[in-house]
TrEMBL record:
<dbReference type="Pfam" id="PF13959">
    <property type="entry name" value="CTE_SPB4"/>
</dbReference>
<comment type="similarity">
    <text>Belongs to the DEAD box helicase family.</text>
</comment>
<protein>
    <recommendedName>
        <fullName>ATP-dependent RNA helicase</fullName>
        <ecNumber>3.6.4.13</ecNumber>
    </recommendedName>
</protein>
<dbReference type="Pfam" id="PF00271">
    <property type="entry name" value="Helicase_C"/>
</dbReference>
<feature type="short sequence motif" description="Q motif">
    <location>
        <begin position="135"/>
        <end position="164"/>
    </location>
</feature>
<dbReference type="InterPro" id="IPR011545">
    <property type="entry name" value="DEAD/DEAH_box_helicase_dom"/>
</dbReference>
<keyword id="KW-0347">Helicase</keyword>
<keyword id="KW-0690">Ribosome biogenesis</keyword>
<keyword id="KW-0539">Nucleus</keyword>
<dbReference type="InterPro" id="IPR014014">
    <property type="entry name" value="RNA_helicase_DEAD_Q_motif"/>
</dbReference>
<feature type="compositionally biased region" description="Basic and acidic residues">
    <location>
        <begin position="60"/>
        <end position="83"/>
    </location>
</feature>
<feature type="domain" description="Helicase C-terminal">
    <location>
        <begin position="480"/>
        <end position="646"/>
    </location>
</feature>
<feature type="compositionally biased region" description="Low complexity">
    <location>
        <begin position="513"/>
        <end position="528"/>
    </location>
</feature>
<feature type="domain" description="DEAD-box RNA helicase Q">
    <location>
        <begin position="135"/>
        <end position="164"/>
    </location>
</feature>
<dbReference type="InterPro" id="IPR027417">
    <property type="entry name" value="P-loop_NTPase"/>
</dbReference>
<keyword id="KW-0698">rRNA processing</keyword>
<feature type="region of interest" description="Disordered">
    <location>
        <begin position="735"/>
        <end position="812"/>
    </location>
</feature>
């Protein structure tokens, strides 16, 4: 770690003045400086004996420090608890606080050169619906009933390119499918619609036809059997898929969809299964559990199995569960073949659909486990040609070249190179600037590396700042109200009641939930009701659900601070901006994070924070994820962001009569940024809980930093972190002691830590370590020679697909 020679938190205890002192530890320069300082104070004590004391020394200490080392830029002295510009006669120990604006590493000129300010228009959307006239839903083979429902009730005018391709294929043949498409392109409807249409085509045998109304004659009901299973990696995603199903099934009340997920009450799930479910959405761990222990769960009529977010399912170590599920489906379906089916039109073969953004080894393995005769369906976005001319793009594509999964073409991405000390103020400035005007931005997501960091930043932004006035007067200096930071408000920590769909989205209700708060510190007079939410995997499931619901339904401008638990698959409406405050752990994570905006043809912006040095190497990865030269990736000037963010410092206070008062203070932007930072630092010092939160966040963040994928560890090298500077981003004046940086062991420690983070975040039990069992055909579907042969061919094809980039594979 580089050392910039800064004297951080260095102070000399009053009781040492006049005694013989031995200085140990640190650098020789610092020891010498401390010795000299002590000597001068001894001399002064002798000279001004009557004046000496705690009141006299602090006023001179700043001079002493700055005169001692003339080459060092002037630092602002922190007189513990008081504003640095005040002449307060504090009696507490004195310390020199590292300035936000000195000794900062600079961004490379190459990164600065890429900073462009002109607002170049973004490209044509790559995930938008196709023109309605050219491709109505009916042209895909969907029934007039479903097409009308989509257009009239769900306001969907036409399918997206991937929907067109998938629906046509799945309605045409019973073959398995591997769907690969960019974020926000409508994959959920792409696989649900054909399944639904097929289920609607089924009927009861005439002898079983109910006589309760001619319109229902022959139609299935919830007791007719479970026909489709959809597996998703997270509980949030299962609930989201279930919500899509509920909307689709509204005019079809005789069909029922349900969910089983970790964290929910098993008995409750069992009783719903007993009543009958036709389409079940599940997390793999909980489904495997039910298959083992819930006798009423009959999967003999399951004819569609969907594995959504396949890459994530494998990353989370669900391989064993999925193998077990596939095996049980095979066994129970085979047994049932011998018996009598109570449904007419049910195919003998099960169709499996695998959705994944990437074609990684894990996905290949998942394909080997689950797919038999698969068609690879994807839409070419390589050349960023709008869907109307996608045909041209396909024709222009060089033969044999694999298309990478890219960010949506219309997404405007930026990066900002910020020195570690300025990270927190720059984030605050960016959010203040973003939400300065009401209506300009509705919702933003900020991604952080770990749950502890989310908790800390949530408290930072949820508190009310008590900043010192611009010009301190003697009365101000004596006024405690300017020197004491208010403690974070106590929130009710009791678990929230589940919100019903019809419940009004009142602010009062939001405040009952400890993960939601107003953020006065980021609000502005023109946008006073800004709300902040937090989400991570260590929260109770009820809280996660309630938070997400509140953020989704909020009509107030809102910010969501979260870990990667919210990066995959979640479809949160009106997200205008995604901020990757902590860079993603892999480029795949980046694609998914920024994919929360710019969905279904809508506009969106994303901004990635990087630190000067090796991290600037990530700019080229951002560019390649955006499609190289054609992508919209710009650099933002960090100083500009600070200037704009701190152009008007807002103070938010509550009077005795409980009236909120916003005051605009004028002054220099760098002073305001410094005041803002010092205010947070004072809070962290004064409030024990806040201090603990900050230290935990810092330590967890550094550990998480060591878990970037191997390929990117040269860019995100934990050994190169300047921990002293980084501490300031957590409002700490020095790095917490006794923390391993994990060098040498960092990667393994870090890996384990990340694994833990993931397990907790998904809350699923019985996860295996994901050991590969290549060449073992167990659970590959079918068993026997035929099954093994199909699996072998599947493997071969998928490897070819990953390597050479054929656009389609079929195994006969
Ligand atoms: N044909 C359509 N026309 C307009 N909007 C659509 C259409 N199909 C889906 N959408 C909307 O697009 C959004 C994204 O859909 P969905 O969540 O299925 O995308 P996805 O491809 O699964 O994204 P991700 O890869 O991030 O999981 C949803 O809000 C959905 O309602």
């Amino acid at each position: 770690m580089a050392d910039d020679g800064m004297l951080m938190n260095f102070f000399i205890r009053e009781d040492l003045v006049g005694t013989k002192s031995v200085f140990k530890g640190g650098r020789w320069k610092d020891r010498l400086l401390a010795k000299k300082s002590l000597q001068r104070r001894k001399d002064k004590k002798t000279r001004d004996e009557p004046l000496t004391g705690s009141n006299a020394v602090p006023a001179k200490l700043r001079e002493t420090v700055s005169n001692d080392d003339v080459s060092r830029p002037t630092k602002r002295q922190k007189l513990d608890g008081a504003h640095p510009r005040s002449n307060s006669t504090a009696t507490k120990p004195k310390e020199v606080v590292s300035s936000l604006f000195t000794y900062n590493p600079k961004a490379k000129p190459s990164a600065a050169a890429q900073t462009q300010t002109e607002d170049v228009p973004a490209l044509e959307p790559s995930n938008a619906p196709l023109p309605a006239s050219a491709s109505p839903f009916t042209s895909l083979g969907l029934s007039p009933f479903l097409s009308t429902h989509l257009t009239q009730n769900l306001s969907l005018t036409a399918p997206t390119a991937i929907q067109k391709a998938v629906i046509t294929q799945l309605l045409k043949e019973d073959s398995d499918a591997f769907i690969q498409a960019e974020t926000g392109s409508g994959k959920t409807l792409a696989y649900i619609l054909p399944i639904l249409q097929r289920i609607l085509a089924l009927s009861k045998p005439s002898s079983e036809t109910p006589v309760n109304g001619a319109d229902k004659a022959g139609k299935l009901d919830r007791t007719s059997g479970l026909f489709a299973l959809i597996l998703a990696p997270t509980r949030e995603l299962t609930h989201q898929i279930s919500a899509v199903l509920t909307r689709l099934l509204r005019p079809l009340p005789w069909l029922v969809a349900g969910t089983v997920t970790g964290g929910a009450t098993k008995n409750h799930e069992k009783s719903r299964i007993r009543k009958g479910i036709n389409i079940l959405v599940a997390t793999p761990g909980r489904l495997a559990d039910h298959l083992e222990n819930t006798e009423v769960l009959d999967v003999s009529s399951v004819r569609w199995l969907v594995l959504d977010e396949g890459d994530r399912l494998m990353e989370l170590g669900f391989e064993e569960e999925i193998k077990g599920i596939v095996k049980k489906l095979e066994e129970r379906q085979d047994k049932r073949k011998l018996g009598r089916l109570n449904v007419v039109g049910l195919s003998e073969r099960r169709t499996t659909v695998l959705c994944s953004a990437t074609m990684k080894i894990g996905v290949q393995k998942l394909g080997e486990i689950s797919l038999k005769d698969a068609v690879h369906i994807k839409v070419d976005t390589e050349t960023f040609i709008s869907p109307t001319t996608n045909q041209d793009a396909a024709e222009q594509k060089p033969q044999g070249k694999e298309t990478a999964f890219l960010t949506p073409a219309q997404l405007k991405q930026s990066y900002i190179v910020v020195p570690p000390k300025q990270r927190l103020v720059t984030l605050a400035a960016l959010l203040m600037r973003t939400f300065a005007r009401k209506g300009s931005v509705m919702k933003a997501i900020v991604f952080l590396s770990c749950a502890d960091s989310v908790d800390f930043h949530f408290e930072v932004f949820a508190r009310k700042a008590v900043l010192p006035p611009k010009e301190t007067t003697p009365s101000d200096q004596n006024s405690k109200s300017h020197q004491r930071t208010r403690k974070p408000e106590k929130r009710d920590t009791s678990p929230p009641k589940e919100e019903s769909a019809t419940e009004p989205n009142s602010t009062k209700r939001k405040l009952d939930i400890p993960t939601i708060s107003p953020t006065p510190i980021l609000s502005s007079p023109s946008n006073p009701s800004l709300m902040i939410h937090k989400l991570h995997g260590s929260l109770e499931q009820k809280l996660r659900t309630a938070t997400l619901q509140s953020f989704t339904r909020s009509t107030d401008p809102s910010i969501l601070l979260c870990t990667d638990v919210a990066s995959r698959g979640l479809d949160l409406p009106n997200i205008d901006l995604v901020i990757e405050y902590d860079p993603p752990f892999s480029s795949d994570d980046h694609l998914h994070r920024v994919g929360r905006t710019a969905r279904a043809g809508k506009e969106g912006r994303a901004c990635c924070f990087l630190m000067p040095g090796p991290e600037e190497g990530y700019i080229s990865i951002l560019r390649s994820c955006a499609g190289g030269e054609l992508g919209w990736v710009k650099g933002e000037d960090a100083e500009n962001v600070l200037k704009k963010g701190f152009v008007n410092q807002i103070t938010h206070n509550t009077t005795k009569d409980n009236v909120d008062v916003l005051t605009i203070q004028e002054g220099k932007w760098d002073d305001r940024a410094t005041d803002w930072q010092l205010d947070v630092e004072r809070w962290v010092i004064d409030d024990k809980c806040a201090g603990e939160l900050a230290r935990k966040a810092f330590t967890s963040h550094v550990r998480a930093y060591a878990t970037h994928v191997v390929a990117e560890r040269g860019i995100f090298d934990v050994k190169g972190l300047h921990l002293g500077h980084l501490a300031k981003a957590f409002a700490l004046r020095e790095r917490p002691g006794h923390m391993g940086r994990g060098n040498g062991n960092a990667n393994t420690n870090g890996r384990r830590h990340r694994g833990e983070r993931r397990r907790v975040s998904e809350g699923e039990a019985n996860r295996n370590d994901g050991k590969a069992q290549r060449g073992n055909d167990d659970g590959l579907g079918g068993g026997g020679d035929e099954g093994q042969d199909a699996a072998r061919k599947m493997r071969k094809k998928m490897r070819e697909q990953a390597g050479a980039g054929a656009s389609e594979f079929n195994i006969g």
